[in-house]
Write a structure and sequence with these properties.
Low-confidence stretches: none
Order of helices and strands: HHHEHEHEHEHEHEE
Radius of gyration: 17 Å
CATH architecture: 3-Layer(aba) Sandwich
Bound molecules: S-adenosylmethionine
Structural class: alpha/beta
Shape: globular
Helix content: 40-55%
CATH topology: Rossmann fold
Number of helices: 8
Distance between the termini: 44 Å
Length: 215
């Protein structure tokens, strides 16, 4: 069981069923066609990463959480559950209005929409326009945007704030963008970071200036 709240559990069961159907469909799709049709699919972080995110959020108790890449709301469900539990506000961003509308409806049904602010538009513009700090960030948009999004988010990361980035190991097609991202993270002296083999591979990064001998 992933959600104790029965309405959230019901919504999550729908995500799981849809993901199973999509896996069966995409197994046989040629790679080019998968790329053309990627907006049809959930492309979720998966339940292990979802649970990990929720645990991090509940442990860290951030005032604000940022999700870059709402998609259809699978990862949003875990983050919103945590946000509600610890009184945080979740800001979730996607450029695709139809996907975000779907996510909003699912979160409403789960009884979690009040914890979420849905912002539709380009992640870089939205992060640049936001004036407050974030205590937890999920980075899960198209992989060529990881580096510019990281540079935009970095100045807005709270002290002891966390960034979780998905797809560090899989898919292979993201490897080059991921390498550039991980190098940029490691170049910042006030960040501590580690690659974890969870789901498709995540990078867990914490901003830690106080007591850091490099500073
Ligand atoms: C891998 S999916 C996110 C999956 C989601 N986090 C989950 O686990 O359910 C990536 C999302 O990034 C969004 N995206 C791509 N480019 C974007 C941009 N420039 N600004 C905001 N969102 C963007 C896509 O529309 C897509 O829904």
């Amino acid at each position: 069981m992933y959600f104790t709240n029965p309405k959230a559990a019901e919504v999550f069961a729908e995500y799981l069923a849809r993901h199973e159907q999509e896996r069966a469909l995409t197994r046989d799709l040629p790679r080019g066609q998968f790329g053309e049709r990627r907006d049809e699919f959930l492309l979720p972080v998966g339940a292990d990463v979802g649970n990990f995110l929720r645990a991090l959020a509940i442990g860290r108790k951030p005032e604000r959480i940022l999700e870059l890449g709402t998609s259809y709301g699978y990862s949003t469900l875990f983050l919103a559950d945590a946000a509600k539990a610890c009184g945080a506000k979740l800001v979730t961003v996607d450029v695709d209005a139809a996907k975000q509308d779907y996510a909003r409806r699912m979160l409403e049904r789960a009884g979690l929409a009040e914890a979420v602010e849905f912002r539709c538009g380009d992640a870089l513009d939205i992060v640049a326009a936001d004036e407050s700090e974030f205590g937890l960030v999920l980075l899960d948009i198209w992989k060529n945007l990881y580096l510019p999004c990281f540079e935009a988010v970095y100045p807005k990361l709270a002290e002891e704030g966390l960034i979780v980035s998905d797809n560090m190991i899989m898919p292979e097609s993201a490897r080059e963008a991921v390498r550039a991202y991980r190098e940029a993270v490691r170049a910042k002296v006030d960040l501590q970071t580690v690659l974890l083999p969870l789901g498709s591979g995540i990078e867990l990064t914490i901003k830690w200036s106080e007591g850091n001998p490099k500073l």
